[in-house]
Design a protein that fits this description.
Layout lengths: L5 H7 L12 H12 L6 H15 L1 H10 L3 E7 L1 H10 L3 E11 L5 H7 E11 L2 H6 L6
Parallel strand pairs: 1-2, 2-3
């Protein structure tokens, strides 16, 4: 088996989601000061660290809610074969993810409607625009 290349590894890891925040000038200035003094590599490094610290502080609450709401924590991918198997079983999926849920690009809107009953994603849902449009009434 050939070794994995950097581009192959990058293809396996989903890209981070971008968010936008508004900060006051004083807060932004303090961030820039900490970056300038070498505490953080850049603004993003400080913001990621602050977010991770808050998530660590509240990790027990997150764990309890994930269990109570029966959410899958992490990344969950649904291929066309997965959805055809669900459809053949006569069942329907209730997708519940905290993280990233992906529906393969070869999944048709008709297959998605036949196999997926509901979608709850706290994080990001990646699917074709046609599949997202077809499931719009089932996404909560």
């Amino acid at each position: 088996m050939p070794p994995k290349t950097a581009s192959h590894a990058a293809a396996l890891k989903p890209a981070d989601e971008k968010i936008t925040i508004n900060l006051g000038y004083v807060d932004l200035g303090q961030i820039d000061l900490l970056v300038q003094e070498g505490f953080y590599a850049n603004r993003t490094d400080l913001i990621r660290t602050a977010i991770r610290n808050q998530l660590t502080t509240h990790s027990e609450v997150v764990r309890q809610v994930v269990a109570r709401k029966t959410l899958v924590l992490g990344i969950q991918h649904f291929s066309a074969a997965d959805l055809r198997a669900v459809q053949a079983s006569g069942e329907a999926l209730q997708i519940r993810v905290l993280g990233l849920a992906t529906i393969a690009l070869d999944v048709t809107p008709e297959l998605a409607l036949a196999a997926i009953d509901s979608v709850v994603v706290l994080g990001a849902l990646h699917a074709s625009p046609a599949v997202k449009a077809a499931l719009a009434g089932r996404i909560r």
